[in-house]
Amino acid sequence: MEREDDLPAVERPPTLRALTRTVDTLLLPEGFNRSGVIWTRLRNTFFDVIDIQTSRYDHLHFTINVGVCDPQIFSQIWGRELPEKKSVTDCIVESRIGYISGQTDVWWDLRDQQAVNEVSRVLEREVIAFLEGQQNHKDMLDWLLKTKTLKQMYPLERIKVAVLYHSVGELDASRQMLKAELANKRSEHWFDRVNFVGSKLKLQLDMN
Known about the structure:
Blueprint: H1 16-27, E1 33-35, E2 38-43, E3 46-54, E4 61-69, H2 71-78, E5 93-96, H3 97-100, E6 108-109, H4 115-132, H5 137-147, H6 155-167, H7 171-183, H8 191-200
Antiparallel strand pairs: 1-2, 2-3, 3-4, 4-5, 4-6
Helix pairs in contact: 1-4, 5-6, 6-7, 7-8
């Protein structure tokens, strides 16, 4: 008779902790530091940020968010220093991994034994290359304009584009972007922020 301890061990689904350890093995040698499920790396004057986001509905599915923070751009938009504890929402360029690869949004199942291995492959193949492609503000501007049309962007994304235009020396494009935002009634909630940015960049935004 087959005893219970002779039966093959049942593989347990990977947990968030196991996933975090696996991501550590890839990102820590690349110069990242981890706090919780957020990895950050200082690269020249930029900060690369990667985090794991679990589904708020079941906490069993997860995706990966990626971004590049810049203290200068952050200050020009928000009028304060970049937080010591960075998040993807602080970044000038941010995306979920599925959109970086040009596909649709991708979520993995923590209960899937292959999920952790797939994440490692995607991080190495897609995410690291994406971050290393963001070498300067021109790269960031090009990526933002490539991924969405201006009409598809949220107001904050268009503000980021305007600030990047200013940074690369296209002052008139920056001014026109901000003026167009002030003329957009759907962006009314952002008017104070747009005016703040215009003042910070020393751009004249009068609607005459």
